[in-house]
Amino acid sequence: MKLVAPISAPDDVAVLAGAGADEFYCGVVPREWESRFGRSTLNRRMGGNLGSFEELERAVQTSHHLGKRISVAVNAQTYSNDRWDDLLTLLTRIGDTGADAVIVGDLGLLAALSKGRPPVRIHLSSVASCHNSETAALAAELGAERVILPRQVTLAEMERIGRQLPGLELEAFILNDGCVFEEGSCHTLHLPPALGGPICLDRFAYGYRRDDGKPISAAERERFAANDQAYEKWLWYTFSCGFTVTAAGLPHGPCGLCAIARLERAGLAAVKIAGRDGPLERRLRSVEMVRWVLDRAAKEPGEEAVAAFAQGLRKNPQLCASGYMCYYREVAPSGVSHYSAAKPE
Amino acid sequence: METSSRNETIADASAAAAADLELAIAFTDPDRLDRFISAICADPSGERPAKIGLAGAGLGALGTWRVSRVHFGNEFCERLLPSRAEFESVIKLISAAGVGFSLVAPMLTDDGLDAAQQLLEALPDDSEVVANDWGLMRRVRRRFPRLRLSAGRLLCRMLKEPRAPSAQYMELGGHGFMNPGFEGLLRRFGVSRLEIDVPPFATVEDLRAPGHRVSVHVPFGFTTVGRICRIGSLHQPPARKFATGHNCARECLSYVTAMESPREPRGSDLRVFQRGNTIFYRHTTAMSAVVADAIGAGMVDRVIVSGDWNEAGSANLSA
User: Fold this and answer.
1) How many CB pairs under 8 A join A and B?
2) CA distance A309 to A331
3) Domains, in order of start, for chain B
4) SS3 assignment, position B253
5) Residue of B51, B136, B153, B157 to mutate, interface with A, max A Cβ within 10 Å
6) How far is CA A182 from the centre of its chain?
7) Hey, are the CB atoms on B244 and A107 less than 8 Å from each other?
8) In this structure, what is the dihedral angle of CA atoms B225, B226, B232, B238, given to the nearest 10 degrees?
9) Helix or strand holding residue A72 (H, E)
10) Cβ of B165 and A195 within 8 Å?
11) B149 shares contact with chain A (CB less than 8 Å)
């Protein structure tokens, strides 16, 4: 199982490779695109992008020199018609740099690429919201060689997709950067803080009404208050525990390290560290953590032992015990069993 | 545009496009549909606009039209898929009301696809399925070629930031349902109808999709949705709250979550609320006017009114 790490500068490649990264991904927003359409419209990131094809070429050369692959994210949710021709030109330029794959978030773009001869491998981004094996099969029919599963896919769901499509590479999130909503269906902006920031962190005052118009009872009010309190706690974990790190610099926040052995067993091709726009130090420590657990899983056959090792890395067991820091709550100490659709508890 | 003149515009649009225009009402909850379908699908009366939530939305003139279709199902959560038995009752109910029927389905896991397939099997030939998941599109086309497919608003992606301070922000994310790639996917699955939201700062052009029949949702647009549900965690123990795949008691059918902005109101802010796992915004009068203009221009031939699972709830329907 490959460890895929984000880079935001060509020199990051060697640093992160040295820490154990197997593959890289990045964004590139050339000046001509930025001036015509804005910086965030190509891959949804204001920061953390390479600024030119020349920088991308350097990153590609270094990656290939080290025997590693590099992918380029072109993963907006969709592209309006006025950007289409520029987009196809840009994809050709990316291919010309020797990059190994593009990561696309719009199934329409994937469909368009499948009509011609794509210049590179195609990976389907988590932004494409592939939650089932039918969508994964469609992606494969359209030429995707890898599907990056959204954060909000459970281990059981991944396993089922993997069983249905054994020839398709699957990649899962393993560390950093939570999302409250589904990336591919969140049509908001991460506004500047003065305008509210991301909608999931905007400080709305929440109030509850009954659908039938009856007043909220005291018992209901109490239950809402407890739920809201737990939600605030969960938000704190989801946003990297207030963007904190351990004394050794290991990042807190969304984490799937306990699931590595199970992901290996399910045949996943890769695990991904999120956060292209994070500081290099954070990405470096993240790569180290994932590499330690991957190496331990290679030596240690038991999933529980690997999970225990992973939980010990931050030396802060109460963070793991809450379960709120987990991408995959199924393997958290508290656990969440998989449910069946349409069966209310 | 002022409310009265807008209503006149809608009435004019109605007259101009009456032959082609459908008024549909959307329901998630089979029990509410059962309770209200007779009143809603009855011939229009002076009271009905309020009952289907249009008067408050500044779209009262739409209420003078006859409801010709029911959209049943939820676009946002697979846990709201009905059982096969519930669904068969709904089909009978809608058939008895003498109106058209569309099954609406959300983004789905494989378990959800299995559950949805049970519903697809119960559908009469040539029924419309509003898919919000490309996997469901593929499943329907492969196994149920007898059914018609429409692309739901989760597939017709566009930026819809209800807090955007100006139209310039919205230019960052124009819709993609006219780009050649999306068109190719629609052709692949034989989709001819698109369901779209009215984005903040909308112009009529935002609702234009040449070559396709267009349905527009009123008076609410959705801005974001996820599989982690705040209200759906209400009765879960702490360790099971806010996890993908957690259980719920369908609390979203019982409660509406109001969201009050922490900032001084800006003229551009839209009113938002949360229902289940989804945040919605309410249309402004200017956005309603855009809908009216698009109807008048023949760009929209179906208006889908939210019947439940919205800000007002069923209290509004029984008012």
Assistant:
1) 300
2) 13
3) 2-220+283-309 (3.20.20.70)
4) helix
5) B157
6) 11
7) no
8) -140
9) strand A69-74
10) yes
11) no
